[in-house]
Amino acid sequence: MAQERLSMRKLKEVLRLKWGCGLANHVVARSCRVSSSSVSEYVNRARAAGLSWPLPEDLDDAALWAKLFPTPERPADEPIPEPDWSAVHKEMQRKGVTRQLLWREYRQAHSNGYGYSRFCEIYAAWRGQLSPTMRQTHQAGEGMVDYAGLTMPVMDPVTREIREAQVFVYSLAASNYIYAEGQWAQDLPNWLAGHARTFEALGGVPPLTRNDNLKAGVTHPCRYDPDLNKTYHDFALHYGTAVVPTRVVKPRDKAKVESAVLVVERDVLAPLRNVLFIGLAAFNEAIAERLHLINHRPLRHIGQSRQELLESIDRPALLPLPEHAFELANWKLAKVAIDYHVEFDHHFYSVPYRLIRQQVDIRATAQVIEVFAAGLRVASHCRSHQRGRHTTDHDHMPAGHRAYAEWTPERLTRWAAEVGPQTASLVAAIMASREHPEQGFRASLGVMRLADRYSAERLEAACGYALQAGITRYKSIKQILDAKLDQTTPADLADQALPAHANVRGAEYFR
Q: Which of 4, 143, 163, 206 is the right S-S partner for 38, CB 3.0 to 4.6 Å?
């Protein structure tokens, strides 16, 4: 066959230059801008058809083409065996199966069957007769997920309030198998729980899931590089499935699930429109009953049900379920405060102090709070629900802060007892006089350090003097030592007469 199919005008020009002008093939090829092999092919065909130049005047283009490319005759009693196109279409949805492979198998069984190009042409025409939702070819194990546009009124069994239940729909593209359930909201926990229950119902995990740009699944939609919700991404990693968001406002990217949503709305929700369900459990039970009928009903043009196609096409391609169920986690972006703590749900958790003022990611489950910096986990705490309180790991603190954190009222009192019992009593009195004992830590340390400057004996005497006078401030203790009042008692001071001085006014002045 010629390597290039020429127009009839150019084909006649080839014959004119070759036979009428006597030019060589490569010259004709250069003049007509075709390959030399094409020139040779057409000249040989014309010679075999008994043509010469000039061509007969009554030979039109159709007759010339018929002479050059005659249709091979086939005996009337030898019909071409017709492939089972529905079986071909079904096999095309298996992984690794191509039209070339199916055609070779067809020709092995029927040596007088169609050629490959004719095989593909007839198959394309047959596939074009199917419903629009069947025209795309999907690989086995490919899933699509979305929410139905219709909702269903369901009574809350606790509050007796009638709420609009959302309908979660998951469809396997190759077999058209449908899973659906009712949910109270289209939030992240329901979105992930719907996936997990779908995988359990299927008995495996689809390797690929195409989803709409729902906010619970995609944080930043983009045609080329969308950002998945981090929890949804962790969910996909846990189950081993790949999540591929569709393009924004492109429903044809998920035509299979759009068709499944239409089936659910027409064959599930519409027949149940006059039923008021009490609780989601009753609603989901009714959905499951109707889906059982839908999935076991034979499909038109295919001759098999969705359940049968699931077993033969999709189920072999499903991944095994993980050993443990996914634990829901919430992510939050936070900035480390100056006290090297981050806040989550009104509680504060420590991180290494070197991360002060840096952005970190918080991953929170029901029991654990994890903090990540640059993708690495830097802190982990048991989750606390005490509002306004702090959970601190001493290893996250600077050395000076760790030493301060180890102070306790009992420890400070033991330190003071090394100076003497009066000092220990005064330190205990200082901390008792404060609203919080920690507020007296620095004053107590300051009092104990006075022993280095004035000696332990004088400090012990000064503390005894202060206890008798009811003094609990560091500055007052230091003034006692500076004035050497530790060498006397308050009673001695009371016996001393006031010195005579012009600025000293007696009791008569205030009468």
A: 4
* 346 and 476 both lie in a single domain: no
Nearest to 469 by CA among 480, 458, 478, 481: 480
Q: What is the pLDDT of residues 299-341, one digit of tens each?
A: 877 778 889 888 888 888 889 988 887 877 788 889 988 778 8
- For 422, the domain range is 407-495
Number of Cβ within 10 Å of residue 207's Cβ equals: 18
Same domain, yes or no, for 248 and 359? Answer: no
**Token pair 């690929």: residue:** 208
Query: Beta strands 368-373 and 376-382: pairing type?
Result: antiparallel
Among left, alpha and beta (phi > 0; psi -120 to 50; other), residue 139 is beta
Q: What is the CATH number of the domain that holds 168?
A: 3.30.420.10
Per-residue pLDDT at 284: 92
332 pairs with which residues across the strands?
A: 362
Token pair of 205, please? 């995990």
CA distance 350 to 342: 6
On average, the pLDDT of the chain sits at 81
In SS3 terms, 390-425 reads as EECCHHHCCHHHHHHHCCCHHHHHHHHHCCCHHHHH
Round to whole Å and give the CA distance between 258 and 245.
14
User: Per this entry, what is the length of the chain?
Assistant: 511
